[in-house]
C-alpha cells in the first residue's frame, strides 16, 4: 500500500549530495524551492533539474511532492548538462506512469479519534 505523497531523490554522478529541494503542497498549490550553497559558496545548479521535474509532475500527482536534487559530475560538459534535462524529462514520464499504475493501491490515512485533551490542552 502506498501513500499519495511522493518523495523523489534525484541524485547521482560522481558525488551524490543534497543540492536543493523543491516541495509542492497539493492543497495550497504552493511550491517552495530551497537552494543549498556548494563547497565553494555558489548555489548548487542541480536545483534546475528538481524544478524541471516538479513542473512536469506536481499538478498531476494525487498528493504532496518533495524532490531532493543532488547531482555532481566532475568537469561536466555542456552536452552532459543538456542530456541531464532530457533524462529528467524521461524520469518525469516514468514517475507519472508509475503513479497511474499505483493509484488503486494508495491508502488514505485513518485518524485516531479516541485521543482527548484536558482543559490545558494536554493529551490524556
List keywords for this structure.
single chain, alpha+beta, four-stranded mixed β-sheet, 4 strands, 23% strand, globular, Prenylated flavin chaperone LpdD-like domain-containing protein, LpdD_chaperone-like
Task: Describe this protein's structure.
- This is Prenylated flavin chaperone LpdD-like domain-containing protein.
- InterPro entries: LpdD_chaperone-like (IPR048844).
- A hairpin with a 4-residue loop joins β2 and β3.
- The protein is built from 2 helices and 4 strands.
What is the straight-line distance between the termini?
A: 31 Å
**Which percent range fits the helix content?**
25-40%
* Coarse structural class: alpha+beta
Number of DSSP-assigned strands: 4
| Shape assignment | globular
Low-pLDDT sequence parts: none
* Major sheet description: 4 strands, mixed
Rg over CA atoms: 18 Å
**What is the ordering of alpha helices and beta strands?**
EEEHEH
* Share in β-strands: 15-25%
Whole-number average pLDDT?
90
Q: How many helix segments?
A: 2
Q: Output the strand order for the largest sheet.
A: 1-4-2-3
Care to give the gist of this entry?
It contains two helices and four strands. The chain has 124 residues and is an alpha+beta fold.
Per-chain topology:
Layout: E1 6-13, E2 20-25, E3 30-35, H1 47-57, E4 65-72, H2 78-102
Parallel strand pairs: 1-4
Antiparallel strand pairs: 2-3, 2-4
Helix pairs in contact: 1-2
Amino acid at each position: 500500500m502506498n501513500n499519495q505523497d511522493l518523495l523523489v531523490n534525484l541524485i547521482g554522478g560522481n558525488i551524490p549530495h543534497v543540492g536543493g529541494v523543491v516541495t509542492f503542497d497539493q492543497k495550497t498549490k504552493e511550491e517552495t524551492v530551497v537552494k543549498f550553497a556548494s563547497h565553494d559558496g555558489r548555489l548548487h545548479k542541480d536545483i534546475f533539474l528538481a524544478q524541471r521535474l516538479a513542473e512536469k509532475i506536481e499538478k498531476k500527482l494525487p498528493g504532496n511532492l518533495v524532490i531532493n536534487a543532488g547531482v555532481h559530475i566532475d568537469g561536466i560538459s555542456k552536452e552532459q548538462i543538456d542530456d541531464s534535462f532530457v533524462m529528467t524529462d524521461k524520469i518525469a514520464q516514468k514517475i507519472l506512469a508509475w503513479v497511474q499504475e499505483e493509484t488503486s493501491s494508495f491508502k488514505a490515512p485513518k485518524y485516531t479519534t479516541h485521543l482527548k485533551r484536558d482543559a490545558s490542552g494536554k493529551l490524556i
